[in-house]
Write a structure and sequence with these properties.
With 139 residues, this protein is α+β, with helices and mostly antiparallel strands. It is built from four helices and six strands; from the N terminus they run ααβααβββββ.
Length: 139
């Protein structure tokens, strides 16, 4: 990992006032070190760690992703109520879920139109709307 990538990861943690532990910096660098947004699972991030000198347990990856979400650095997108993906792009936007490869990518927000939402029950408000568009190959 380059010093620039490590610095980008460290700065990302600092914007949420998260303590830059060795493991957090390593994971943050993998997530945002190149300046691009990512969609990862805990397992895919754990596998990416294996290519670095930093050894991190899968439990630590899960806990760190949760801390990043709680700090507002990432959002969790759940597919099928069981599989969680973590997105570093915090802008409101829809996603494509590619069923054949079980991957998540951004869908163009400019092409999404939601005309109306159902009225929320009394005493609650809509906090956000997640849109996941499932895709599968037709051939």
């Amino acid at each position: 990992m380059s010093q620039e990538a490590i610095q980008r990861g460290t700065n990302w943690l600092a914007q949420a006032d998260l303590r830059p532990t060795r493991q957090r910096v390593a994971l943050a660098t993998l997530l945002v070190g190149d300046g691009k947004d990512r969609h990862v699972t805990a397992e895919s991030l754990y596998d990416a760690c294996a290519t670095t000198s930093e050894k991190v347990s899968l439990a630590t990856v899960y806990n760190t992703l949760r801390a990043f979400c709680d700090a507002g650095l990432m959002r969790e997108i759940t597919v099928d109520g069981a599989k969680s993906y973590f997105d570093t792009n915090m802008d409101d936007h829809p996603h494509f879920f590619w069923e054949d490869s079980a991957t998540l990518t951004d869908a163009p927000a400019s092409e999404l139109e939601i005309a109306k939402l159902p009225e929320a029950p009394e005493g609650v408000e809509v906090s956000k709307v997640d849109v996941v568009i499932r895709l599968r190959n037709t051939k």
